[in-house]
Amino acid sequence: MTGAPAYARPVDPLIALTVVLGVVAAATLAGVVLRARDGRLRTASGDTTLEPAADASVTLVQFSTQYCSRCPGVRRMLLEVAGAHPGVAHREIDLTDRPELASEYRILQTPTTLVLDPGGRVAARIAGVPRRRDLEARLATLTEGAS
């Protein structure tokens, strides 16, 4: 055998730098994309249903866990939003001891908020911290239709 084994040969610094920069760029791009999607209100197909609050035309259902650091802030915000809109209620479901509900309602992260119309159909889904402006605009649309 002549020469050193492949794993013992020195790495070309230009190739190493190119690989490192490529990995950093890919990780940065992935972070930007995920950050942009976090909290975005997505209109749902309405094929999923939950039990809406009895005294409300629209129900905000927050899925959380005991270990979710963002859930208490989302809870406070959703309670404020519900209090500011007549006919809107807030319910919270803790998935810590009920992980089967995460599968049933396709909850991939906490917090996740579902906006239910008067019939209990999911009108919107928000993964992450909701953007208050988007949520209030959607609530205005739903409560106008319920009035």
Give an overview in words.
The chain is elongated. The N and C termini lie far apart (85 Å). With 147 residues, the protein is of the alpha+beta class. It folds into two domains: 11-37; 41-146, 3-Layer(aba) Sandwich (Glutaredoxin). The model has no long low-confidence stretch (mean pLDDT 85). Helix 2 (71-84) links the parallel strand 2 and strand 3 (88-94). The chain is built from four helices and five strands, in the order H-E-E-H-E-H-E-E-H. The chain has a five-stranded mixed sheet, with helices on one face. 41% of the residues lie in helices and 19% in strands. The chain has helices at residues 13-37, 71-84, 99-104, 132-146; strands at 41-43, 58-64, 88-94, 112-116, 122-127.
What is the element layout, followed by pairings?
Elements lengths: L12 H25 L3 E3 L14 E7 L6 H14 L3 E7 L4 H6 L7 E5 L5 E6 L4 H15 L1
Parallel strand pairs: 2-3
Antiparallel strand pairs: 1-5, 2-4, 4-5
